Request: fold
Amino acid sequence: MTISAQPDFAVIGGGLCGRLVAWQLAGDGHRVALYERGDVSGSQAAAWVAAAMLAPLAEAASAELLITRLGAASLETWPTLLDQLPERVFFQRNGSLIVWHHSDRAEAPLFERRLRANAPAELLDGGLVALAGAQVGAAEPALGGRFNQGWLLPHEGQLDNRQLLAALAAGLAARGVETHWNTSVDDNALPAARITIDCRGLGAKPVMPTLRGIRGEVARVHAPGIGLTRPVRLLHPRYPLYIAPKENDLYVIGATEVEGEDMSPVSVRSALELLSAAFSVHPAFGEARILELNSQCRPTLPDHRPALMWDGASTLRVNGLYRHGYMIVPEVAGEAVRFASALLDGRVADEDAFADWRNNARWRELFQLDRGHIRGDARPAATLNV
Ligand SMILES: Cc1cc2nc3c(=O)[nH]c(=O)nc-3n(C[C@H](O)[C@H](O)[C@H](O)COP(=O)(O)OP(=O)(O)OC[C@H]3O[C@@H](n4cnc5c(N)ncnc54)[C@H](O)[C@@H]3O)c2cc1C
Reply:
């Protein structure tokens, strides 16, 4: 009898997307190996630095309808996913609050117009609540008396990114995924597997030349006593910022958005902008303790959409999650897992089958056939005779 030593799937990149895809495939009973260049914590991923806000309506100010719909659907899916993980992850669906200083009041109608133009009616209906000054204080007591107006987006959410990465790592172990931490995979020496799923984020640039990084910088501060209960976004013409409160008085303050793949530490200018803006939202941030200033690059494709790219053979690339990874990954990963399973069992083996699959997929806009990156089989032969 000949038993293949190859796993069904090799997932390359164990940041946000790779962990979720690997965990779900293993949950479906497949043999999965995961390769991550960084450590088990995920500290080399964009996912490590992110604020992990799940805000499809607020993001509609700058995102197209596809992203908003992916985000809205994913927000419904997150609780079910989190319930299956072996460790608890902080998740809340307590809304986002949008505020602005009086001098920046011209930003508010612009923001509202963009939302109304870009977001589907069902999200706007009851999802965008105008607040007068006293109502701002009623919604978010810490900000009482500080803002004359605001918007409450009551259905939005957030989670703790680092708790999620840890819980997924525990989930991978529980489901028997073969994990290779601190293992960088080279495109010329792919690990043995029947199907390869490339979730390397910006690390896939050598085979995805149109992929680019968009730098983001954040501050993590400890600020006991302020007590914000939901992410607060400050409208500003130059320094739009958010303050995302996590558990135990931890706040993630972010984020800059700068074209380029600069992974160097946070600049003085950005630190000043982030921290000053937070101080302007609540002066008690002046006494907060800075735990971390950090930067990472968001993996971004030219159209700012995520993509599932099949090479026509045995490789699927999942990339382009840009600034919406947490917000959309349940739907994107779900679609990737279904497609990868179809590749494995031969339901999709040629262009016609791919076209049929795409036409019937829930998120057909995500699928691309990209034969440009088909390469010779650089895998080691890996069959075991027993
Ligand atoms: C400052 C900032 C704030 C953000 N805030 C939010 C937010 O509030 N809400 C939201 O939804 N999204 C947010 N994001 C976006 C989100 O973090 C990304 O969209 C998401 O992390 C992308 O997931 P990914 O798995 O594709 O990439 P990553 O999370 O970057 O993971 C890719 C992994 O691949 C690994 N890798 C790379 N090359 C190799 C190799 N050769 N071999 C092995 N492993 C490799 C890397 O080490 C990494 O762990 C933010 C991002 C940033 C930078």
